[in-house]
């Protein structure tokens, strides 16, 4: 057996890593605060010159005490560098300030997850989204999505859209290589993909299968875009195995949606989809699998996102290993005839048909 312990970091390094975890919530709030107050931008704008706490205080209106206490921590976090009472931006600081993915993830953690994450242990022990109570009294977050407080809703959608928007252009080309006439978008949310599809192809009709709140939003947005003629809604509770899927689709499209369900629930959804398919129907599953990522940072983000599902969303779902999803696809009587990685920011597309 390989001696994995000897490949580990030194005890001193490990103790340092452990402190980063111990103070993790505080370092996160420090990063949010230097971003939101303009302190980090003031450091960035000073470029090679560097800038003193006094000058940052004048620029931002934050007390010198506030600037110093935050930036001393930011220096420990290797976000900035401090020398001779001046501060310079380091690369991590650059990404905190300018990287869209980092911005979207930080806002999602702050507005959707932060307060509720305190209840993670309860969520794990009781297999329920124990943190959701800080946002409202719903059984799961999807039932409350249309009614979330405005800032929470904004950050939730920015997070959801950021990842799918990056993948959608490539996906349109892939799905419309054999143009479907009827596409059913399972968990189609507010209809972003549906609108893109009808704009891409003048002959396609899209039906969104989702909960009533999301269908209301989707209808409104389709009307505002003048696209409501070919975008329809079909109300369904995907958790209810007694609600069959409508028949007649050339394509079932399930994007970033199965991660909202447990493996058992996924099987129920896929079985109902399979029951509504013919030999010519194709079912697409778009997901981000943590084992299919090229970058360690992406794998890290996905495993962290899983815990959002645990504590805030529904208590029993996650970002899956591709192996676990493939098992459910097969158990539902489907086979994958095309498997494509690295779409957008780390998405994988399975094209499935009846076995
Ligand atoms: C993460 S969003 C995915 C949105 C979109 N497909 C995309 O790719 O960006 C998950 C969607 O699944 C829907 N959903 C979750 N639970 C559901 C349920 N029990 N019944 C119907 N739809 C559900 C949510 O309302 C939401 O629109």
From TrEMBL:
Gene3D superfamilies (UniProt xref): 1.20.58.1390, Vaccinia Virus protein VP39, Winged helix-like DNA-binding domain superfamily/Winged helix DNA-binding domain
Ranges of residues in domain O-methyltransferase C-terminal: 179-321
Keyword Transferase on entry: yes
GO MF assignments: O-methyltransferase activity
Keywords on record: Methyltransferase, S-adenosyl-L-methionine, Transferase, Ubiquinone
InterPro entries: BVU_1015-like_N, COMT-like, COMT_C, SAM-dependent_MTases_sf, WH-like_DNA-bd_sf, WH_DNA-bd_sf
Pfam name, any one: Methyltransf_2
Record domain BVU-1015-like N-terminal dimerisation-like: where: 17-87
Entries under SUPFAM superfamilies matching the protein: S-adenosyl-L-methionine-dependent methyltransferases, Winged helix' DNA-binding domain
UniProt keyword S-adenosyl-L-methionine, yes or no: yes
GO BP term, pick one: methylation
Domain of life: Bacteria
Protein name (record): Methylase involved in ubiquinone/menaquinone biosynthesis
Source organism per UniProt: Owenweeksia hongkongensis (strain DSM 17368 / CIP 108786 / JCM 12287 / NRRL B-23963 / UST20020801)
